[in-house]
Amino acid sequence: MTPKKADRLATGILYGIAGIIVVILASLLLYILAQGLPHVSFKFLTTPSKSFQAGGGIGIQLFNSFYLLFITMLVSIPISLGAGIYLSEYAPNNWVTGLIRTAIEILSSLPSVVVGLFGFLLFVVKAQLGFSIISGALALTFFNLPLLTRNVEESLKAVHFTQREAGLALGLSRWETVTHVIIPEALPGILTGVILGAGRIFGEAAALIYTAGQSAPALDFTNWNPLSISSPLNIFRQAETLAVHIWKINSEGNMPDGPTVSAGASAVLILAVLLFNFLARFLGKRIHKKMTSA
């Protein structure tokens, strides 16, 4: 076989494998959307769920998912940004730094159920926070922190060293160079990683079963006092998220229209995760284009 024929054969095999993977993923997504979208309506998205009656929605679960995501990112973004800046700009190249990076790699590959059990032991039991939004957010912080830290570090390292030299040559301090030159240049990559991490958190279930709880108490959306037990902003209340709700419907089977609600909730979850991914790509390209044209 000539080298050209071997090259065409190998290329064809790779294209075939890629095509099979795309077809499988597209078929799965289209099946979920085709089964669920007909059941999605404004009423479905806004009404509370029902355990032993038909006609319930996912309003509270959907709010809980976004609120828990907000609290998680509020905790994890500053920590990961500081850790990424330290590892990229200040950490010396020695065995301690290598150990830290190894620990980050190990933590990023932990199964979410292990993180959930760790959060249950540390936050729910030891810290006596109970099944609550704050317990779930702190557990998801441990789950998301290694990935965000690695993303920030890699985005900062991708900035060419001449940018650093230019900042120092202008008389800026090292910290001023990082904050005024390096971070703005790396912002598209950082923002993309943050949004993709948000999408991963939004669809998480295993870690939240053991920390945020499996119930969705009725909420009074006219009461915005964070200390009130019925307030949507109370971080110490239980909060069943959309992903946990889907798992609960299919595991307990106490809902007459369970398959319908599960299909609709799955479609909403898939659309939300897809939206996070498309938003990350769009904003990343938009910011990068603005910065390069400025």
TrEMBL record:
Protein name: Phosphate transport system permease protein PstA
Entry-linked SUPFAM superfamilies: MetI-like
CDD domains, alphabetized: TM_PBP2
Keywords linked to the UniProt accession: Cell membrane, Membrane, Transmembrane, Transmembrane helix, Transport
Subcellular location: Cell membrane
Pfam family, one: BPD_transp_1
TM ranges: 12-34, 66-87, 99-122, 129-148, 261-283
Annotated ranges, domain ABC transmembrane type-1: 62-280
Family under the similarity heading: Belongs to the binding-protein-dependent transport system permease family. CysTW subfamily.
Organism: Vagococcus humatus
Gene: pstA
GO biological process per UniProt: phosphate ion transmembrane transport
GO molecular function annotation: phosphate transmembrane transporter activity
Gene Ontology cellular component terms for the protein in this record: plasma membrane
Membrane topology listed for this record: Multi-pass membrane protein
